[in-house]
Design goal:
It is a single chain. This protein has 37 helices and 49 strands. The protein is α+β, with helices and mostly antiparallel strands and 1325 residues long. An 8-stranded mixed sheet has the order 26-28-24-36-33-34-35-44, sandwiched between helices. Strand 38 (859-871), helix 26 (877-887) and strand 39 (896-905) form a beta-alpha-beta unit. The radius of gyration is 31 Å and the shape is globular. The termini are far apart.
Length: 1325
């Protein structure tokens, strides 16, 4: 019985009851601020639910929540973000985590078919996202038994990030379960060259265990037979109530007038609350969970989730033919609100009140449709009085609504549409799915028909993004009464009215507590609103005239592809085989342990960083009194507590701000407490005292202030060949311009984490998520004043790195300092925001260039200056700048060439290497310069590229190194053939001639990537230690860190092949500086080679020691274990070390070798919005002889998608005060190519590397330059159609939707937007 109408305390239960993987869990008075993921991880040791963002973005924490639908015993499953889901909301529910599907510990043969196929399909690399991916898909399967289609897959993972794989293998693993699966069940094809072609490497021809959902765990009967009681819990600062009835809510609201109502809590009850707060949860109130269809429309309860509302409206639409326009528009459009997991918990009422987590009501995708459909909210107050308010009047902007004290939303009524009513909705965002909306809007037209003519009787237009969503009343009035056929000629005046009604507005003044992204340009957002209206009118005309709709609703297509590689031959051992990732199955079962998963002791303390509130200031001091007085707080430390305030090797960058703050969010100190929540609250309570100073933020700011670091003699800061000035002076054609490349945030899935444990001798054992344990050991020694022998750093694996964990040691030093001072274990895991704010992006670049060429496109010379934004320290950017200079020639033969680089000193966080470490910037720059030349000359860009490609025996600019084993032209022409480039070029031109508002673009680019740069050889060294144990199994220690690139499986392959054992006999422990003290740093695509050579050397030593015994008569016919047992009795040393430090064969060699490749991309651009779809990508990569084709294929696909994101959607923004906009989009499954083909060149070899392999972690990223160039090709086609000159058009990267739209031109939509040519000029002689 529901008993909470009375408020007596004894009638409330404070025992939380729920089920996890079938087991009953009871918790007395849990802390309401704890998330479900925190309780699962820390309370139940179920660590498969990873916390990658804490914001409901990445989906790594996904679990399945099961409960009965309101008023029924029908069980419904939903995927949710456990990082957002408060543990107190789990009351009377069943939770399934990845551990509940299957584990290898209990039974290695009994893992779930989903887990098995993820492993078989090579669908994990770093593995941090995999548990969330599996659980998202598992929930979809449970809800759609036997009805799952391939088309449902992409939409289901719209709330899941993967930074490694490029998504294709993940989608293929999921597609294999659909009832219309096109996953091949036949054996891979073998062509005449001996190469293998697969549709899904790992699954083609594989024996797949069937899925039997009847064997899944049943819903706990207890939850069907026992009604839940009202629930209450209290923590340090949060008191939580979960009443069961509406009368109970009213009573609580009377007694707690300042209480905060929550429902789905996608806005995070589990956020750090500083002041005592009472929350009243509406999610369990039966009356607020109702959905119904009445005589005047649909009624959605105030606690109904967005997902459930969508489902209900879809059913209501089916039964309301002719009156369903509004229902269907909402059902379709609300799929773009956040991701599936957020929609499953976020309520419609909550979305009305607070809007988008980043942009508030202004960016809400829910509000505009409710406004134009004349929807209403019913409100109830503490007196039991109700009132009805139109949504239009309810929304006040700035996250303010027409809610009086004690009122809450009971329901939302959505009226039926009328016959001949047309409703459309639109979202403009940098990324289609799970992304903040720059502009959002909806339109409604009611038509009347008279003698075959249609007139507009009613018009409703509502747009948000510039201001809080509001009606365009003037434009509506101008539309009413118009004949539909007359609208087109009225568009110019309608657009002018729209711009008047939606001017710029300072949103921060309206809602100072709301997080607002740095908004897009007003010109762009107004153009988008006009485009929305144009699309609505076009759809209206298509209906009236019974013609094809030029703007159909978007549905993500299924991604398909091919992978082509050279298979192994008999007798080659374990190398060249497509082995699965060594812990691929553990990724899929959630048993792979990362830094934050390591079990802590009961005496462990937790740390949180105090961050600087400004970008540049004198640090006057800190006030820690309030923080240290808080419950559970133990200590505060800062720069004065370090022996040496150092953060990174090679520079004196600071761990904590010393006398001066150098960038916004610079760590100032660290707070330590007995729980993570308490540490976080206390860190926010520390007051930083400062005197603000002027800040330099951008490269152009630095140029104006002449703020540069001196050149670092270790790295090149200029390069030159021939007499450039003479070549440019005599060149028949010269072009010049400026080009910018934005930085990128690494967004590795696993944030930085550290667990520092004091040793008995006063030293430290540090678990750290780092790419460089040995570097970290040395820096910790300097910072703490400890000898290196007293510090052990260990790393088992990391959830992605991409350079961001190579030298960034803030959190590791902070945790180690606290542990050393207090003599207790200290754990520090950064939240995603802090990780983004302090770790530093890859540096933005700015180029000024001048190129000379002949009239037929033969390049004669290039002169350029490149500036890189190093931020507040110059650790890695000087090295990266050298790589940019050395790769700005890319794959072309330059008669003359001159490049100069400068490192800007600014007040940004110190910038860091990113996948490619300066190389992609050089490649992208020169490809846009070549494209500029081709466009100017009116020659097809691919022909200009082709005529200037390097040939065998040519020399590159850097040190005039002679090119050997040049497979560039092989890759280029194979790519042209594989992509059917010439035929598709014709088809693209035909498509563009037939379509005015969408254009396609096609581009093909080459790539030359120098590996193992001589400038960095001091860092390319490592040792290995291999031990053969008594039973014949092998223990292999090496210096590389597994971060998804597959180094562990490759080291196992090398070790097994050299020793002649099966790969299953090799085990690779965690990297530990006690075992491998000179492990170097993992990165640069060379770690496999450097470590592989060390492993090979150790194995060869062991092999040589065993050779006499193996060849003896006594060992003939004996097995490997027998050989090893005998060797042990004979006292043969079965442990050996190996050393690797690559040598360079010629003084003029800039690189050890080169990786060659070519990539072709076709895109389709919606010119009205600037958004694009990647239709097809073809990559041909010189992989040498791939050590593991499956791993290298994954590296190629993932690197390309990462580059594609960097160059198109990953728009990093700092405001004028140096504050990073943490609203940052990375590619999702929806963004990847619809057709994705990757081939490795046949007959590849590499005489400079182990087993003839080549490093592929970074080179394929450069081929992603073909994506923005294809978009530019589409832009040029659009401008050409309008008669706009593009010969000197310069577009910088990332080529976002905003940049695309602004460069497209007017599109014959008068006054929408215009954009002149870029910053460039051309001269002809």
């Amino acid at each position: 019985m529901e008993k909470d109408a009375k408020s007596a305390e004894q009638e409330w239960s404070n025992t939380l009851v729920f089920f996890v993987n079938g087991d009953r869990v009871e918790v007395d008075n849990p802390d309401p601020s704890l998330s479900l993921s925190e309780y699962l991880r820390d309370g139940l040791a179920l660590t498969s639910s990873k916390v990658g963002c804490g914001q409901g973005l990445c989906g790594a924490c996904t679990v399945m929540v099961s409960e009965t639908e309101p008023g029924t015993n029908n069980v419904k499953h939903r995927s949710v973000n456990a990082c957002l889901f408060p543990v107190v909301h789990a009351h009377h529910k069943a939770i399934t985590t990845l551990e509940g599907l299957g584990t290898t510990i209990k039974d290695k043969k009994n893992i779930h078919p989903i887990q098995e196929r993820f492993s078989m399909a090579h669908a994990s690399q770093c593995g941090f996202c995999t548990p969330g991916m599996v659980m998202s898909f598992y929930t979809l399967l449970r809800n759609n038994p036997g009805t799952l289609t391939e088309e449902m897959i992409k939409q289901n993972v719209d709330g899941n990030y993967c930074r490694c794989t490029g998504y294709r293998p993940i989608l293929d693993a999921m597609r294999s379960f659909t009832n219309n699966s096109k996953i091949s069940t036949s054996e891979p094809e073998v062509d005449s060259t001996g190469q293998v072609t697969t549709q899904t490497i790992g699954l083609d021809g594989a024996k797949l265990h069937p899925l039997d959902l009847s064997s899944e765990k049943i819903f706990p009967p207890y939850l069907l037979t026992h009604a839940p009681s009202p629930f209450k819990a209290s923590g340090d600062v949060v008191t939580f109530y979960a009443p069961r009835s509406l009368s109970g809510v009213v009573k609580l609201a009377q007694e707690n007038p300042n209480a905060v109502f929550v429902s789905g809590n996608s806005r995070k009850l589990v956020a750090v609350a500083r002041q005592p707060t009472t929350f009243i949860s509406l999610s369990s109130v039966a009356e607020l969970q109702n959905v119904s269809l009445g005589d005047d429309g649909a009624v959605i309860g105030g606690a109904v989730s967005i997902s459930r509302a969508r489902d209900a409206l879809g059913k209501f639409a089916d039964s309301s033919k002719g009156r369903d326009a509004g229902f269907r528009a909402i059902q379709d459009h609300w799929r773009w609100i956040a991701g599936t997991q957020v929609r499953n918990i976020a309520s419609v009422a909550g979305s009305l009140c607070v809007g988008h987590i980043w942009g508030g009501q202004e960016s809400s995708d829910a509000i505009p449709l409710l406004v134009i459909t004349n929807s209403e909210v019913t409100l109830l107050n503490t007196k039991g009085e109700s009132r009805v308010v139109k949504v239009e009047d309810f929304i006040k902007g700035g996250n303010k609504v027409d809610l009086k004290e004690g009122e809450f939303i009971v329901s939302i009524r959505i009226p039926f549409s009328q016959p001949n009513e047309f409703v459309n909705a639109y979202k403009q965002s940098n990324r289609r799915v799970s992304s903040y909306s720059d502009v959002t809007g909806a339109t409604r037209f009611l038509l009347t028909e008279d003698s075959g003519k249609f007139k507009i009787k009613e018009a409703s237009l509502c747009f948000g993004g510039l201001v809080a969503a509001k009606r365009a009343t003037k434009t509506e009035a101008a539309l009413v009464g118009l004949d539909v056929s007359e609208i087109t000629e009225k568009l110019p005046s309608l657009f002018s009215l729209l711009k008047e009604e939606y001017p710029e507005e300072d949103r921060k003044e309206k809602a100072p507590g709301q997080q607002y992204p740095i908004v897009a340009a007003l010109e762009f957002r107004q153009a988008i609103i006009c485009g929305f209206l144009f699309k609505s009118v076009s759809r209206l005309l298509a209906h009236v005239n019974d013609t094809e709709n030029d703007f159909p609703l978007y549905h993500a297509p299924v991604t398909v592809g091919r992978q082509k590689y050279t298979p192994p031959t008999d007798g080659e051992g374990e190398v060249y085989k497509p082995h699965r990732h060594h812990t691929g199955t553990l990724h899929a079962t959630g048993e792979a342990i990362y830094g934050d998963d390591i079990e802590t002791t009961k005496h462990t303390l937790y740390a949180a960083l105090v961050l600087a509130p400004v970008a540049h200031a004198k640090l006057l001091g800190v006030d820690t009194e309030a923080a240290l007085a808080m419950k559970g707080v133990v200590a505060y430390y800062d720069a004065k507590d370090l022996v040496l305030n150092i953060c990174e090797p090679l520079t004196r960058s600071e761990s904590f701000a010393g006398t001066e703050i150098h960038y916004h969010s610079q760590p100032v100190g660290v707070v330590v407490a007995n729980t993570k929540k308490r540490a976080e609250r206390a860190a926010l309570a520390v007051k930083v005292k400062y005197e603000e100073l002027p800040a330099i933020v951008s490269i152009k700011d630095a140029i104006a202030a002449d703020s540069f670091y001196p050149a670092n003699p270790m790295f090149d800061h200029k390069t030159e060949r021939g007499d450039v000035e003479a070549a440019l002076k005599d060149a028949p054609v010269t072009i010049e311009g400026e080009f910018e490349i934005g930085g990128a945030i690494h967004w590795y899935m696993e944030p930085h984490t550290t667990y520092a444990i004091p040793r008995e001798d006063g030293g430290l054992f540090v678990h750290a998520s780092t790419q460089g344990p040995a570097w970290l050991q040395s820096v910790l020694g300097l910072a703490l004043g400890l000898p290196m022998k007293d510090i052990v750093v260990q790393t088992k694996r990391i959830g992605g790195g991409f350079g961001g964990k190579a030298t960034c040691f803030f959190s590791h030093i902070a945790a180690a300092l606290a542990a050393h001072k207090l003599g207790k274990p200290v754990k520090l895991t950064l939240d995603r925001h802090t990780d983004m704010l302090i770790t530093g992006p890859t540096p933005p670049h700015f180029f000024k260039y001048k190129l000379g060429a002949t009239n037929d496109g033969k390049i004669l010379g290039l002169d350029f200056t490149v500036y890189t934004n190093s931020g507040a320290a110059a650790m890695m950017p000087p090295m990266m700048l050298g790589e940019t200079l050395h790769h700005a020639d890319n794959a072309y033969n330059w008669p003359t060439f001159r490049g100069k680089g400068l490192v800007a000193k600014t007040n940004l966080p110190p910038t860091r290497p990113y996948r490619g470490a300066g190389v992609p910037q050089g490649v992208l720059f020169v490809e846009f310069v070549i494209d500029h030349l081709a466009t100017k000359l009116g020659i097809a860009p691919h022909l200009v590229r082709e005529m200037n490609l390097l040939k065998q025996g040519d020399t590159i600019v850097s040190h005039d190194q002679v090119i050997e084993d040049n497979t560039l032209r092989n890759a280029w022409f194979q790519c042209r053939q594989q992509a059917d480039f010439d035929q598709r070029r014709k088809e693209v031109d035909l498509f563009n001639a037939a379509n005015h508002y969408k254009k396609r673009g096609l581009s093909i680019v080459p790539s030359k990537y120098g590996l193992m740069a001589k400038a960095g050889k001091a860092f390319m060294k490592t040792s290995a230690m291999v031990s053969i144990l008594a039973d014949g199994t092998v223990l292999c220690h090496h210096g590389g860190i597994e971060m998804g690139q597959g180094i562990q499986i490759k080291m196992s392959q090398i070790c097994a092949t050299v020793l002649g054992v099966d790969i299953s006999q090799v085990y690779i422990p965690a990297q530990n500086v006690e075992n491998i003290p000179q492990g170097g740093v993992t990165g640069g695509s060379a770690t496999t080679e450097v470590n592989g050579m060390a492993v090979m050397a150790a194995c060869e030593t062991l092999k040589k020691r065993l050779e006499p015994l193996r060849n003896s008569d006594a060992m003939k016919g004996k097995s490997w274990p027998e050989l090893i047992m005998t060797a042990g009795f004979m006292r043969i040393d079965l442990t050996a070390t190996g050393w690797s430090a690559p040598e360079y064969e010629a003084d003029e060699s800039a690189f050890k070798y080169f990786v060659w490749g070519a990539g072709a991309t076709e895109v389709e651009v919606d010119l009205l919005s600037g958004t694009h779809s990647v239709l097809r990508v073809d990559i041909v990569q010189d992989a040498g002889r791939s050590l593991n084709p499956a791993v290298d294929m994954g590296q190629s696909e993932g690197a390309f998608v990462q580059g594609m994101g960097w160059f198109t959607v990953e728009d990093i923004k700092f405001d004028s005060q140096g504050r990073l906009d943490v609203n940052y989009d990375i590619p999702m499954a929806d963004n990847i190519p619809h057709q994705y083909n990757v081939s490795f060149l046949a007959g590849g070899h590499n005489s400079h590397s182990i087993f003839s392999a080549k490093g592929l972690g970074e080179p394929p990223l450069c081929l992603a330059s073909s994506v923005p160039l294809a978009i530019k090709d589409a832009i040029v086609a659009a401008r050409r159609e309008q008669g706009v000159d593009s010969s000197d058009l310069v577009i910088s990267a990332p080529l976002t939707a905003e940049q695309t739209r602004l460069h497209v031109g007017d599109l014959s939509l008068a006054h929408i937007a215009t954009q002149g040519a870029g910053t460039s000029k051309t001269t002809h002689k």
